Amino acid sequence: MAAPKRYYSGSSYSPLVGNTAAFYSSNQELDQYDDHAQKAYGMPSKYSEDDASQYDAHNAPLTYDNLNTLKGPRPQRPKAGWSRRRKIVVFGGIAIVAIIILAIAIGVAVAVTHKSTPYNYVPLTDQVTNESSFTLGGATRADPSNVQDGIGAGADVYKYYSGGPSQFPTPDKWISFENMWAGNLYAMKHACRTLKEGKDNSDSDNEYIYSAIQNRAAASLVDHRLILAIILQESHGCVRVGETTSVSGVTNPGLMQSHNGHIYSSSAANASIYQMVQDGTQGTNQSAGYGLVQNLDMYGDAYSAARGYNSGFIPKSGNLSEAAGATACYVSDVANRLTGWANATSTCS
């Protein structure tokens, strides 16, 4: 920033200092200098050649050689006062610097606070115990690291299903976790913008979802394909998805729209994604919210568990495609996701 212009009281001219008179070569210039000097210092109106020479000597640069030859007092330079404008510039600058320092300090304090208070994720140990779920589908003791555990890629088509669980495709018709993940990954990457929920998942977010599914499947014995199908059904895999609230005040947030569960935290992405997947898979114990584990234990198969997860109960008709106060197509959609549906048009009305 350029230095502020300095003003001197008592004269409209800048002070003439140093050996200034020696630089005036003509009489006209000397007269101009004379006028300037008179106004600035109250000097005689005219200088003779001797006067000019004496002034020149008095104002010669101060060196060791001429230190003892100077005659008379040197003209005193007026003291430079602080103008109003200069005060504003200087004190204004100090205020701006102080504000910047304060902002930096606050930013560092916030960063330290986030760093010192990590996301409090505590893994649960709840597991499926109903043996029917291991036979009819939804639970498995197979190692989830085996991601080729199905019929392959299946077909990207939609077939409408209704009725009881026996009317839905059996687990031997399900595609592999590997193919199910690959077939839906593109849609997951762009789900947040599609749903108008902010910026899309990062690659790291999607890696955390994959890891969380595998981790919670191993801990809970819920089939990793069912966990992924519910995530796709509830949020399309968007980590920033919003939440809904029931008339009784229960919120359904996160990747699996769990019962009074947790939401995504950008400052703790990995831990919050694990938490959201856990909430939907193993339930939210602190608020008595059922996850897939509790529904599989209650109903004994994947499709009834999906209806219970979405509605909270099985309708008296036994038809899993009855809305039961929630989404009519929910269970049919889950069945199609398990058998290869990813992008085809749904035929469920």
From TrEMBL:
Occurrences of domain Transglycosylase SLT (ranges): 212-317
Superkingdom of this protein's organism: Eukaryota
Keywords: Membrane, Transmembrane, Transmembrane helix
Keyword Transcription included in the entry's annotation: no
Residues spanning the membrane: 88-112
One Pfam family per UniProt: SLT
Protein name: Transglycosylase SLT domain-containing protein
Lineage of source species: Eukaryota, Fungi, Dikarya, Ascomycota, Pezizomycotina
